[in-house]
Each structure stands twice: as C-alpha cells, then as structure tokens.
Amino acid sequence: MTSSFNPPTRTLMGPGPSDVHPRVLAAMSRPIIGHLDPAFIDMMDELKDLLQYAFKTENALTLPVSAPGSAGMEACFVNLLEPGDKVIVCQNGVFGGRMKENVERCGAQAVMVQDAWGKPVDPDKVEVALADNPDAKALAFVHAETSTGACSDVEALCALARQHGCLSIVDAVTSLGGCELRVDDWGIDAVYSGSQKCLSCVPGISPVSFSERALDLIGNRHSKVQSWFLDMNLVMGYWGSGGTRAYHHTAPINPLYALHESLVMLKEEGIENAWQRHRLNHRALAAGLEAMGLSFLVEQDYRLPQLNAVTVPQGIDEAAVRKILLNDYNLEIGAGLGEFAGKLWRIGLMGYASRKENVLKCLGALDATLQQLGADIDGGTAVAAANSLYNSR
Ligand SMILES: *Cc1c(COP(=O)(O)O)cnc(C)c1O
Q1: Hey, which CATH number is domain 22-268, 3.90.650.10, 3.40.640.10, 3.40.50.150, 3.40.50.300?
Q2: Which of 4, 199, 233, 250 has the greatest number of CB atoms lying within 10 Å of its CB?
Q3: Cα 173–Cα 322–Cα 3 angle in degrees, nearest 5
Q4: What is the mean pLDDT of residues 334-344?
Q5: pTM for this entry
Q6: Which CATH class is domain 271-391?
C-alpha cells in the first residue's frame, strides 16, 4: 500500500522555490472556507493592500493570479497585446526568451534587443530600438534574471519606454521582496511576480499589477483577450473592488492564506529592511566564496543579492557537488542553465532563505565538498571570511 508522502527537510538555496517560514506553512493548514465567504473576501482585500505595499504601488488592479509566475507573465502579455502589435523584448537570459514566445503567441511581433547572458539590459541598445520602431506598443524586460543573477535598471528602462510612448512590461518574479522595486515611482505599466522566490511562500501564485494606463487599454481592446482564464476584464469580477464579487474560478484558498501570511511578515519586517537583509547576506556569501577563490559571473554593480551565479572550479563535476550537498547536507543549490550548464552554480538567498545560518551552512558545506573532491581552492577560509563580514558591521 502506498503510504503518506513525507518529504525530507531541506534547506532551499536554489533559484526557487525558497524556504518557507513555519508561520506561512501553518497559515496554509488553517480550515478551508468558501471562496465567496465574507471572511475570505475580507482576507482578499487585505491581500490586495499587502501586494500594493510590496510592489510600492497604488494601482487598483493589483492581485494574485491563481497560477505560477509563468501565468503572471502570460497575463501581462495577453491582456495588453493584440494581433499585429509590436513589442520590444530585451533578452539577457532565459526569461526574455519566454517573453518573446508570449508576444508571438499573441499574434504580435517581437523586436529583440540582445545582451550577453550575465550582463544587464543595455539602455543604449533599448533607446536605439525604440527610436527605430516608433510604432512599438510596449517594452518588455526582466528585472532580476534568475538564470544569471544580473539586475537591470528598471527605472532607466521604464523612463525610455515612456519617452517613446511605450508601455513597460516588467518581470519581477525574482526581484519582488529581494531588491529595490518601486512600481509607481519607476512608472511600470504591467508587472508580474511569483510567490515562491523572495516572498518565500508556496509556489503557484503570481502577484500582478497594472497601471491606470494599462487598465484603460485592457478595457478598450478591439479583440477579446485570447485566454479566457487570464482575461483581467473577467478576473476583476471576482477580484475587483467595490461591487459584488462573482464566481470566476475557485481561488486557491489555502495557498492564498499562505501568501497573506508571507506578506504580513514582509510588512512586519519592513520591505526596505528586507532589501537590506538580502544585500548583507549576499555580501557575506560573496566574501566566503571569494576567500575560497571562486568568482561570480556578474560584475559587482549588477549583481542580484538573491541569486548568486558562481563559477565552478576547473575539473570539478558540478552535478556531483550538488548531489553531495543534497544527500549529505540536505542543501539544495541550483545548476547553470543554457550556455552555463556545467559551468555555474546558482545559489539563492531568497526571502526566508536569506539568513546568516544559511550563508554559513552553505559556505561550510561547499568548502568541505570541494576539498573532498580535490578542487583547487583555498579550503577552510570561507566561513571565517563570511563571519568577519558579519562581525565588521
Ligand atoms: C521563476 C521565474 C519565472 C517563472 O515563474 P514560475 O513560478 O516558475 O512559473 C519567470 N521569470 C523569472 C525571472 C523567474 O525567475
């Protein structure tokens, strides 16, 4: 007979999902109520306020899409684009490629602006593309490229979009909660995120927010949104404020309790403090990795604190290292993607996983494992280097 599934207890320091706080898991196990229960609707209203807090926006259309980050991405594209539209899509890693796929599946044309993986999106190239394509409707790019750990300048890119009369569509799946993001101040028109990265909630929910300008556009489309499920005009019948709430789909009730709890925790900490915590733990991790002799893919100025892409030492089988970390230390780190497969590790310090004890655990485990495999590193120095960074504050 198959028995209950009891997963091992891991420390999740990969590209997501990240560790989930016991408070968030506990929230999820509270009794289920109906998705139109007045108590649930009160919780939904709080959830929208909390998401506005996290996104730093007053956008009325701010809500959690009932599906993972990829659905938030799709929601932004299918609602804003119509067949024949043109969109400038920046690609500097995996996720810009998915944006292109979304644009094309809307019957729109993607004009690509390419940057090397590991580099941020280059605003100069974007400006040229905008000037060359005055008929473009939107500029789309990834804030925090999880495949490489590079952070792009959202404020500068959105300003360029606005100067050229374009909407901006921003992927903030890995950035929300982990590094500075200001939807209103930076003039973002459509933004989507994910629950399982720096919000440290369970996967499967995608917070999104649309500006007034985007909302107008969605309300005045010539064609129907190609996706019934993601059509914001319909979703708002359930999530919109004021009027009577009507059934659209059954919300993921208990996961939304979890999201509510994780956002309450973010607000208790203060989002600016959360950004700072991510930066401090990144600096300590970097001090340890660099003491060992390992290097980062991304230049310091563009490095994400929550996603650390680290080069694998010569002659070391990176998968063997990850296997030892998982089996002997219950520690998960991520592998390189695409051209970086076999060459990089991606160490996540996201949300609840961004803690001193995790930094020290990861450095100690990686140090010991690399020594065990005979890597050419400065063994035994990493934890001390990280500790001295923490102590120097
Ligand atoms: C994880 C991620 C996504 C996709 O989110 P899912 O929840 O896996 O669908 C999209 N964009 C970026 C930058 C991500 O890191």
Answers
A1: 3.40.640.10
A2: 199
A3: 85
A4: 95
A5: 0.98
A6: alpha beta
